[in-house]
């Protein structure tokens, strides 16, 4: 993404909604994550519009951005949540979220997490292996509860995305191989403490084409028909796999493109009654955020030009982890200045500490840059490496700004550590 309706230039200055990013950098310092509330609402609106008249539950994949203010916007809009840990469940409960709209995914659910989810009353557990099924049945039985269960089926479909974020291939750790699923469902049926409610799959992230979803859906519908013959009746189908966003020049599918095709298939095959659950993360928040950073130094070597900024891989790991592209905008459009090719790098002592490479920009020391598309998998993947406090997060709503998480204080980074005599 370069600029969007929510992050646009007015008189040479990049704004978040109606607030100049220069003002935010001055007022709150850098690095700084800036979110647009309207962008969150508009992204949600695209799903809501696509689902009109159909039985669809959108469970926000909160791993993308789990700030309570972000979660609460989606809660108010009617979203459910896709969680992958007891910690994420605690966040949902902290904002008064409805556990009945929570699906619990993840390959490594621990007993305490199962207990917490059963106590809260989640919509379902997306079970990813037989040992997990057994553990869940036992935990539920011990608590005198019945656990609602979907099996996360691995459909062996290529989502045509980065290998690190593809999840629905045989070699990925996720889910139960589709050919094994009927047997596991039959086992699940035998437990009085389990209630089979659905079928789940998740094929990957940053998906830009509709075809991988349809390939997965075809396989799941064959499975659901087969299960009906075994007396296992499914109430919902969770079609996980994240719609991609525009980082540069991608033209990803839209929620409407996806849901129109999905319902066409479901109706044609007599499955129009099934509830569809979606678990979007990135497409709801990715382009609703930017990361502001200030240039500390420009450094010119024989080999390269570096812009050394105050944000680093600990604030945004995606470039170095996935070789991901994030657009870089100068918050104030430069007048004149020499355009040169720069690597934008952070202060961390790793050669992999870069945010962008080979960008043609006319930079000056002290300039503020906006690393675009930083609403998803930026803060949630941030660390404190090199004893760097995690940056503050602010939410812009029209011309109002709220700090939704203050910058961490240095002392808080080591306040629980113990010095031995
Ligand atoms: C189980 C599950 N649900 C939801 C998501 C969110 O996906 P995305 O951010 O691609 O929409 C992911 C991440 O890929 C996931 O693994
Ligand atoms: N964290 C990844 C996506 C993984 C999604 C979780 N299954 C990213 O930044 O693109």
UniProtKB/TrEMBL annotation:
Ligand binding (pyridoxal 5'-phosphate): 242, 279-282, 377
Record GO biological process: lysine biosynthetic process via diaminopimelate
Coiled-coil region list: none
Record field: catalytic activity: meso-2,6-diaminopimelate + H(+) = L-lysine + CO2
Residue intervals of the Orn/DAP/Arg decarboxylase 2 C-terminal domain: 33-375
Domain of life: Bacteria
Binding site for substrate: 282, 318, 322, 350, 377
Amino-acid biosynthesis found in the keyword field: yes
Keywords from the UniProt entry: Amino-acid biosynthesis, Decarboxylase, Lyase, Lysine biosynthesis, Pyridoxal phosphate
Entry cofactors: pyridoxal 5'-phosphate
CDD domains given in the database record: PLPDE_III_DapDC
Statement: the UniProt record of this protein carries the keyword Lipoprotein: no
Modification type N6-(pyridoxal phosphate)lysine: residues: 63
InterPro entries, sorted: Ala_racemase/Decarboxylase_C, DAP_deCOOHase_LysA, De-COase2_C, De-COase2_CS, De-COase2_N, Orn/DAP/Arg_de-COase, PLP-binding_barrel
Pfam families linked to this entry: Orn_Arg_deC_N, Orn_DAP_Arg_deC
EC number(s) reported in the record: 4.1.1.20
Pathway: Amino-acid biosynthesis; L-lysine biosynthesis via DAP pathway; L-lysine from DL-2,6-diaminopimelate: step 1/1
The Orn/DAP/Arg decarboxylase 2 N-terminal domain, residue ranges: 44-285
NCBIfam families given in the database record: lysA (TIGR01048)
PANTHER family noted in UniProt: DIAMINOPIMELATE DECARBOXYLASE, GROUP IV DECARBOXYLASE
Function: Specifically catalyzes the decarboxylation of meso-diaminopimelate (meso-DAP) to L-lysine.
Entry similarity comment: Belongs to the Orn/Lys/Arg decarboxylase class-II family. LysA subfamily.
Subunit structure: Homodimer.
Name this polypeptide is given: Diaminopimelate decarboxylase
Organism whose genome encodes this protein: Pusillimonas minor
Organism lineage: Bacteria, Pseudomonadati, Pseudomonadota, Betaproteobacteria, Burkholderiales
Gene: lysA
């Amino acid at each position: 993404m370069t600029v969007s309706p929510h992050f646009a230039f007015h008189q040479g200055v990049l704004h978040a909604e109606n607030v100049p990013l220069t003002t935010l950098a001055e007022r709150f310092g850098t690095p700084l994550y800036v979110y647009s509330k309207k962008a969150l609402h508009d992204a949600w609106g695209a799903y809501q519009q696509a689902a009109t008249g159909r039985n669809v539950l959108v469970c926000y994949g909160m791993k993308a951005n789990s700030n309570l203010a972000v979660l609460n916007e989606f809660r108010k809009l009617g979203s459910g949540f896709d969680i992958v840990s007891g910690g994420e469940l605690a966040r949902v409960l902290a904002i008064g979220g409805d556990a009945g709209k929570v699906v619990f995914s993840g390959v490594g659910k621990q007993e305490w997490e199962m207990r917490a989810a059963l106590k809260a009353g989640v919509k379902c557990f997306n079970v990813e292996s037989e040992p997990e099924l057994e553990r869940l049945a036992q935990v539920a039985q011990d608590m005198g509860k019945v656990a609602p269960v979907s099996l996360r089926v691995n459909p062996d479909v290529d989502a045509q995305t980065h290998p690190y974020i593809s999840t629905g291939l045989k070699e990925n750790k996720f889910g139960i191989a589709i050919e094994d699923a009927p047997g596991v469902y039959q086992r699940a049926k035998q437990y009085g403490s389990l209630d089979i409610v659905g079928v789940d799959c998740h094929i990957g992230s940053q998906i830009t084409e509709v075809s991988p979803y349809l390939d997965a859906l075809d396989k799941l519908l064959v499975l659901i028909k087969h299960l009906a013959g075994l007396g296992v009746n499914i109430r919902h189908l969770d079609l996980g796999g994240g719609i991609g966003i525009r980082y540069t020049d991608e033209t990803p599918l839209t929620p409407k493109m996806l849901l129109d095709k999905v319902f066409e298939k479901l109706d044609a095959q007599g499955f129009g009654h099934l509830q569809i659950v979606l678990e979007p993360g990135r497409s709801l928040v990715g382009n609703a955020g930017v990361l502001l950073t200030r240039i500390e130094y420009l450094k010119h070597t024989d080999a390269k030009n570096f812009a050394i900024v105050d944000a680093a891989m600990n604030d945004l790991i995606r470039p170095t982890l996935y070789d991901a592209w994030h657009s870089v905008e100068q918050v104030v459009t430069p007048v004149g200045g020499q355009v040169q090719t720069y690597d934008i790098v952070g202060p961390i002592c790793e050669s992999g500490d870069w945010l962008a490479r080979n960008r043609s920009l006319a930079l000056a020391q002290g300039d503020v840059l906006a690393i675009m598309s930083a609403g998803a998998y930026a803060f949630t993947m941030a660390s404190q490496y090199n004893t760097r406090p995690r940056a503050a997060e602010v939410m812009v709503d029209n011309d109002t700004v709220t700090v939704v998480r203050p910058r961490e204080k240095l002392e808080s980074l080591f306040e629980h550590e113990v010095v031995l005599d």
